[in-house]
Amino acid sequence: NDIFWSSLEGMNIPSGVNFIDFIREQISEPEIVILLLSPQYFERQFCLCELGAVWVLTHQIIPLIVPPLQFKDVSSVLANVQLLKIDEFQDLNQMREDIIQHLRISGKTFPRWEAKRNKFVESIQIILKNISK
């Protein structure tokens, strides 16, 4: 209930609400922002506006690169930011630790995390193979 993700089914923007106002409200005070950086992300004007808002408001971010995007493809306000790859085990471990530390929460036990992480990376690799065909 504490996560906003407008494109996830069941977490959509309520009907009858102004889309832009709702997004602006949601992005104004998050505790952490996870950026899924893909070629499409950088092509969409609204995503770049959201990135600008996050940058101006100096929110805590976790930027995840989604292949085929590479480190060298990221510039502008993210040029000197430490980036993580969505399909790398160690990077996802770092993301987990960053979230736990920043939100001051306790995570699932590490063996349970590893099993979920491994399944996630396997799924991501299949999706990326299918996209590149």
What would your notes on this structure say?
It contains five helices and three strands, in the order H-E-H-H-E-E-H-H. The chain has 133 residues and is mainly alpha-helical. It starts with 18 loop residues before the first helix and ends with a helix. Helix content is 49%, strand content 9%. 7% of the residues are buried. It has a three-stranded parallel sheet with strand order 1-2-3. It is globular and about 40 Å long. The protein has helices spanning 19-28, 39-43, 45-56, 89-103, 110-132; strands at 33-37, 61-65, 84-85. The model has no long low-confidence stretch (mean pLDDT 88).
* Overall 3D form: globular
Determine Rg (CA atoms, Å).
Answer: 16 Å
Portion in strands: 5-15%
Q: What structural class do the secondary elements suggest? A: mainly alpha
Rounded mean pLDDT is 88
Q: What's the total number of strands?
A: 3
Helix percentage range? 40-55%
Distance, first to last CA:
36 Å
Poorly predicted tracts of residues: none
**What does the largest sheet look like?**
3 strands, parallel
Strands in their spatial order, largest beta sheet: 1-2-3
Helix and strand sequence: HEHHEEHH
H/I helix tally:
5
Secondary-structure map with pairings?
Elements: H1 19-28, E1 33-37, H2 39-43, H3 45-56, E2 61-65, E3 84-85, H4 89-103, H5 110-132
Parallel strand pairs: 1-2, 2-3
Short description:
The protein has 133 residues and is mostly helical. It is 49% helix and 9% strand.
